[in-house]
């Protein structure tokens, strides 16, 4: 499946020193989209711009990214377009390119909207595509060899040999209202009214839709590799768990395996597979649900993601205990880059960082050292630090406790207290 990427920049941060936005690979799940907006520090309902980072087909790159994309639904629309492109083959890519060119010629516009691109991608069956036919001469030859024009088909072989293939191609192109692209020749073969797949307001569903904070594709332990089993959305009540077992045809999850995972927490996407304890996973999903209720804009979930980054956690028991012990960590979401923090510290001391003397100053290195001295670690979600509050171990064993006590856990004065003094 073709994958594309986009860089997200929050409005108002584009000129902030060291701010790099967030890269998102498309097509993406709704949770991946939300996570990218958090990493880009786009506030709930806030504005942003989208820029290309590569891997888009050339004709879409020029149509989309000559100027940054913005708008309330821009990322969701771009994701929908990427989903459509990811599902088409090379022939359909050529058809799509021609459909875009024809549309722009028909409308007389030099730009095309995401809505128009989405609708064109949904109507490719309305077009005929001939790869390798890139000018009137080659089109004329194809016409004379394949009987694509009625008047030519009625002529004798001797008369056909006297025809100018370029003129024949031009006549056919005018008759078809077709267009050439670097890949081939395209014309609209359907006379039916154009279908509007997307009305510009109500976004169609994009790929698999999961409602669980942890979504598991569960199958029998002895099932052959493949897309089998059923999806279980967590947290789930006892009735939903029993329904999942009934659907698989097993009496216990011990006879099942987790084939695939989708999650609101990116770190869990590829870690929670195999024979993980589904009961514990359901408990973890319940704790994630509680975190969403504790603070607006998923702030506690962002803190949880930062803790997982700090502690480098890939263990189920640790993940459960971290979710229940977020009070043991200090978190701030307002530092968007070490560079910006380094500049802030200098400016707070009355230093003019706009002076030419700072033209080659290493703001990033200075900011990183200042963050470290304050006892914090910088992550894409914000700064995080272990404080002195006692960590309550419910699931983690003695060996794991030692890692927490002697590993990444640090304490220090809050960076936010120093910033607001």
Written account of the structure:
The protein is α+β, with helices and mostly antiparallel strands. 42% of the residues lie in helices and 15% in strands. It has helices spanning 30-39, 58-65, 74-86, 90-107, 114-122, 136-146, 150-153, 157-161, 165-176, 238-248, 278-294, 299-311, 316-324, 338-348, 363-373, 398-406, 415-420, and strands spanning 4-10, 22-26, 48-52, 69-70, 127-131, 179-180, 184-188, 214-220, 230-234, 256-263, 329-332, 377-379, 382-386. The chain has a four-stranded antiparallel sheet with strand order 2-1-3-4. Helix 6 (136-146) crosses helix 9 and helix 14 packs across helix 15 (363-373). The chain is flat, with a radius of gyration of 28 Å.
What is the CA-based Rg, rounded?
28 Å
Could you describe the largest sheet, including whether it forms a barrel? 4 strands, antiparallel
What is the β-strand count? 13
As an assembly, this protein is single chain
What is the first-to-last residue Cα distance?
52 Å
Question: Which range does the strand content fall in?
Answer: 5-15%
Mean pLDDT: 86
Uncertain regions spanning at least 5 consecutive residues: 408-421
The H-and-E topology, N to C, reads as: EEHEHEHHHEHHHHEEEEHEHHHEHHEEHH
**Count the helices. How many?**
17
Instruction: Provide the helix percentage.
Output: 40-55%
Strand line-up across the major sheet: 2-1-3-4
Q: Kindly name the structural category.
A: alpha+beta
Shape: flat
